[in-house]
Structure formats: structure tokens, C-alpha cells
Amino acid sequence: MAGEDDAGDQCTAGINFETARKRRDILLDYRTILAQIYRPAAYYERVRTVARLLDRPTLDRSASTDAALPSFFAIPRRDLALLWRLVWRIVLRQPAALWPFCRVFFQCVRQNPGAIDYVGILAAFFLHLRPFSRFVIAAVDRQIAEIDSGRWQPPLAAAAEPDDAITSPRIRAA
Q1: What is the mean pLDDT of residues 73-98?
Q2: Contact, 87 vs 96, CB < 8 A?
Q3: pTM (predicted TM-score)
Q4: Phi-psi region of 115 (alpha: psi -120 to 50; beta: other; left: phi over 0)
């Protein structure tokens, strides 16, 4: 069962079993990985790879009677407002991510404009993932501090709960 600090979140609840390696070492490795993969440059390098590798087929619109949407840098004009809101949020909330985003964005516009929507989606994800990774890192740091201070106690083994199918009376169909 999750404690008050855990709030039921598997990312911050810690390790709930005995480990062969030292618990502190495992938590430190977890912290290091989170800190590395959610650095803006590292994250947007992965976005760049996705944008480069994404192979979106060109749809045959020859039978369509709809007029082509006006676009700017392969972005439909209707999406420019969304792009502006995304960039503005990056500037306000994560300014260190602006230049990595811009580099990936303009490279994608030049080399694979069909993938530009996905660059925007992944950038929007990062607006949540980066702060959440910092929250998780802070929780892991607290767990490491508890181990270092000697306050950490190993989890208690919970008794297995009986299987409902075994303990419930069976209902027979008439």
C-alpha cells in the first residue's frame, strides 16, 4: 500500500522488494538516468532521430475536390496558432529547451516536413515530462538521504490475500 508521500505513484514510491544490489546504488542509478534522459539537449536529440526516421506516406489526393490548405514552412496556417502557443509555453516554462526545440523543428521542416506534427507532439510531452522528472528526482534524493541517515527501513512483507475465487461462495446458474 502506498504511503502518504507516495500518492500511489510507481515512479516515486521507491523499490518495494529486497534487492541483490544495494538499494542506494539502484536509486542513484535511477536518478542518474532520469537526469540524463530528460536534459533538453538529450531529449530533443531523440526527437530529432524520430523526426528523421519517421516515414509518413504521401497521400494520393488526386481525387480530392478540396483545395489545398495554405501553408507556411509546410505547416498549415491553421496550425500556426498552435505552434505559437507551444513555443510560447516553452519560452515561459522551459527556456533551456527552446534552442534544442528550434534546431529540431527547422531541421525537420527542411528534411522531413511530414513529421513536423510529431515534433510538436513530442515537444508538448516534454512540457510535462521535464518537470515531472525533476519531481521524481527530488523524491529519489529524499530516499537516498533516508538511507544515508539510517532512517530507511526495509519494506515489510505483506501477507498474501486469499484469492476471491476460492473464498467467495459460488453462484450456480439455475
Answers
A1: 87
A2: no
A3: 0.73
A4: alpha
